[in-house]
Design a protein that fits this description.
The complex is a heterodimer.
Chain A lengths: L1 H23 L8 H24 E2 L2 E2 L3 H15 L4 H17 L4
Antiparallel strand pairs in A: 1-2
Chain B lengths: L25 H13 L2 H11 L3 H11 L2 H12 L4 H11 L2 H13 L3 H9 L3 H8 L4 H32 L11 H14 L3 H17 L7 H5 L1 H10 L7
Helix pairs in contact in B: 1-8, 1-9, 2-3, 2-4, 2-9, 3-9, 4-5, 4-10, 6-8, 8-9, 11-13
Classes of the chains: A mainly alpha, B mainly alpha.
């Protein structure tokens, strides 16, 4: 409980400090092409890692959850059809919920 | 915030969000953008409470961190049983692109003192994209704050609604709420994957590193280790000439 509050507040302070830092430091830092490229790629790597871990892991063990994977597959299909964000989320959650209702996963 | 709207016009992180050929009306477009994207706070509120955060903790994140990808990351790490330290570290690392946004915005906004402290909170994908699409500094400033106000209010109201809604229903899994987090991340990086082969390579690399490291490291740490895929992707790409 207390630990979660500390994590919430540390995250909030860190995210805010990062935003404020850019408004405070000289703009010439942006001219470093490699630094800029790294900043572009960091979210891609971290978010892909989160997708993989949340899809196939629980704690430190790898798990196979058919309903969860099917929900993600539904999200992929919705994204390929250029569906809006909320539709993607609903397709994923709805597919997983439907399969579990049917006793799968 | 996030790339939640997955718009092609949300701008590249640290890159150059495209300038619209016809200048949008800064207030109207900013308010509409904020309303459309802010509704996604429902998904965050539900995911965070399902992950085990309280309604107050969930709302505190939206009020104070106000950056969707980082918020989802913290909730996701907690949901996966990860340590709080790893969760916060991953979330803050994910927020690093906002530094590049505000670097870009500082010349446009020209804010000092208390106005700078307030403007910093409002730096998101959406407010950055809308500000950079304006023809002059005054319109950029107007558009930035219009987007900020609209998105901030909508995102936080939606977060509260999603958090309360998730608390009232039964087991999160029976409603598929555990899939919301990964589906949201997938939607967030989807436009980036279309950007090029190095992006796709970094995504696959990051996912592979995280899965391979999961049995070996404490939960949450594999996510941070995945940043090495971004480092490899940066070093592998040829030196880019400055624009």
């Amino acid at each position: 409980m207390t630990g979660a509050w500390i994590a919430v507040l540390v995250t909030a302070a860190g995210c805010y400090a990062l935003k404020l830092a850019g408004l405070t430091v000289p703009e010439r830092l942006l001219r470093n092409a490699r630094l800029r490229r790294f900043a572009e790629l960091v979210p891609v790597a971290l978010l892909a890692a989160l997708v993989a871990v949340q899809a196939g892991a629980k704690g430190s063990s790898l798990v196979f959850d058919p309903a969860r994977l099917a929900g993600l597959a539904a999200a992929v299909i919705a994204l390929m059809l250029r569906a809006p964000f909320l539709v993607v989320i609903l397709a994923a959650a709805g597919t997983a919920a439907g399969l579990r209702l049917a006793g799968i996963g | 915030m996030t790339e939640l709207a997955q718009p092609a016009d949300a701008g590249e992180p640290g890159g150059s969000p495209p300038r619209a050929s016809t200048a949008p009306k800064p207030v109207r477009d900013g308010v509409l953008l904020g309303l459309a994207v802010g509704v996604s706070g429902l998904a965050f509120g539900a995911a965070a409470v399902s992950a085990g955060l309280t309604v107050w903790q969930t709302c505190a994140l939206s009020l104070l961190a106000y950056t969707g990808a980082s918020q989802f990351a913290l909730a996701g790490t907690i949901a996966a049983g990860g340590s709080l330290v790893a969760g916060a570290a991953g979330a803050i690392l994910l927020g690093s692109r906002n530094s590049l946004y505000s670097l870009r915005l500082s010349g446009l906004l020209q804010v000092r003192g208390a106005a700078r402290l307030l403007a910093a909170l409002g730096v998101t994908d959406e407010s950055t994209a809308l500000a950079l699409a304006q023809p002059d500094n005054a319109a950029a400033r107007t558009g930035f704050f219009a987007t900020f106000a609209s998105l901030y209010l909508t995102w936080n109201a939606a977060t509260l609604a999603g958090a309360i809604g998730a608390g009232k229903i039964g087991t999160p899994q029976s409603f598929g709420l555990d899939v919301i987090g990964p589906a949201a991340f997938l939607a967030l990086i989807w436009p980036r994957l279309a950007a090029g082969w190095s992006e796709r390579g970094v995504a696959v690399g990051g996912a592979a590193i995280a899965i391979a490291a999961t049995p070996l490291l404490p939960p949450g740490a594999p996510i941070i280790l995945a940043a090495s895929a971004a480092l490899a992707g940066t070093l592998a790409s040829r030196p880019v000439s400055a624009p």
